[in-house]
Specification:
Layout lengths: L18 H8 L3 H9 L6 H14 L17 E6 L8 H14 L2 E6 L4 H10 L6 E5 L5 H10 L2 E4 L8 E4 L1 H15 L3 E5 L6 H17 L2 E5 L9 H9 L5 E4 L2 H13 L9 E6 L12 E4 L2 H16 L9 E4 L2 E3 L13
Parallel strand pairs: 1-2, 1-3, 3-4, 4-5, 5-11, 6-7, 6-8, 8-9, 9-10
Antiparallel strand pairs: 10-12
Helix pairs in contact: 1-2, 1-3, 2-5, 4-11, 7-8, 9-10
Keywords: DNA-binding, Transcription, Transcription regulation
Pfam families: LacI (PF00356), Peripla_BP_3 (PF13377)
Organism: Arthrobacter gyeryongensis
């Protein structure tokens, strides 16, 4: 079973009403809506009544999934995904659902919309109905994650926080491979198209790129941050063309694909006038024009490992509990990278 919102009814946009819709109508934060509907004693009466009226008007209802009553019993596991429309998460979602089903659990799929407040709100709201959580690419702070892990079993992906189980995909070494590939082609001025500022992975990649650029004696420029979607690609491409760089490494494939589209619109030849590297090797990366050079990440494996780590916490004694697993990446070279037309500096 999958859900993106715990709701009923329909909105003018053709989707069910969301907690954010209720928050907007009642003039409060989404977290306040969550407390009013699930823990009403924590909200003053006037605010609670206003929220309840807004929820009734929109036809919104909070989640009522039953919670497991003891270790080893079946129950629901909530998987909080930053953007369910991002193809990066497709194989991940499928692998977690399969592993959970095999272990006797139901998957609740929740879209946090790249919103830190919404992620924190859902984590609290679903704590009463989910036996555990899997958080791929969480945007929460270390303090928030440590607090959440003290209340419910959870596993993060691409995030290392003391005391919180995690699965790490080694993209820092992957972007270093990408830089060495571009260096071997003759590029000496490379741009990094950065992702969300609160992305732990983004920070690690930038540190790795700076380290390798210093070792190679070349220029690395940080442009952005950019929202991790194709629509950010146009702005990223325009800035890239004014930067002086002859190649770029994008935070993810969606940004890279958006860059390819914009460069084609502006008549820029890829790879002769600009080389482009993505990250993740999502479905469709090899269908681009030209096909995208990118880091291939073991996304499906990450989902399986994270699920196994969580299940081992839900069923103590059945298997050895790991606190951390690290998975390698590798560079897949396609036609979007080549030697620069401009001579190296």
């Amino acid at each position: 079973m999958s859900i993106s919102e715990a709701s009923i009814g329909a909105s003018p946009l053709g989707r069910g009403p969301t907690i954010r819709d209720v928050a907007a109508l009642s003039g409060v934060a989404a977290s306040t809506v969550s407390r009013a509907l699930t823990q009403p004693h924590r909200v003053n009466q006037a605010t609670r009544e206003r929220i309840e009226a807004a929820a009734r008007e929109l036809g919104y209802a909070p989640s009522t999934y039953p919670r497991s009553t003891g270790p080893g019993r079946s129950g629901a596991v909530a998987v909080l995904v930053p953007d369910i429309t991002n193809p990066y998460f497709f194989d991940f979602i499928r692998s977690t659902q399969h592993q959970l089903k095999t272990a006797g659990y139901t998957q609740l799929l929740v879209d946090t919309e790249e919103d830190v407040e919404l992620e924190a709100t859902y984590l609290e709201e679903f704590r009463g109905s989910a036996v555990g959580f899997i958080l791929p690419a969480t945007r929460l702070s270390d303090e928030q994650l440590i607090s959440a892990a003290a209340k419910s079993p959870l596993v993060t992906i691409n995030r290392s926080t003391p005391g919180v189980p995690s699965v790490i995909i080694d993209t820092p070494s992957g972007v270093q491979q990408a830089m060495e590939h571009l260096f071997s082609l003759g590029h000496r001025d490379i741009a990094y198209l950065a992702g969300p500022p609160n992305s732990w992975s983004d920070g690690r990649r930038w540190d790795a790129l700076q380290e390798r650029a210093e070792l190679l004696g070349i220029i690395i420029r940080r442009l952005g941050p950019y929202h991790p979607s194709t629509r950010s690609g146009a702005a990223a491409a325009d800035t890239l063309l004014n930067s002086g760089a002859t190649a770029c490494i994008a935070f993810n494939d969606l940004v890279a694909i958006g860059v390819l589209v914009r460069l084609r619109e502006r008549g820029i030849d890829v790879p002769n006038e600009m080389s482009v590297v993505g990250c993740d090797d999502i479905f469709g990366a090899d269908f681009c024009q030209p096909p995208l050079t990118t880091l291939t990440a073991p996304i499906e494996q990450a989902g399986r490992v994270a699920t196994d780590m969580l299940v081992s916490r839900l069923r103590p004694g059945r298997s050895q509990m790991r606190m951390k697993a690290e998975l390698p990446t590798h560079l897949t070279i396609r036609a979007s990278t080549g030697p620069p037309l401009r001579p190296a500096r």
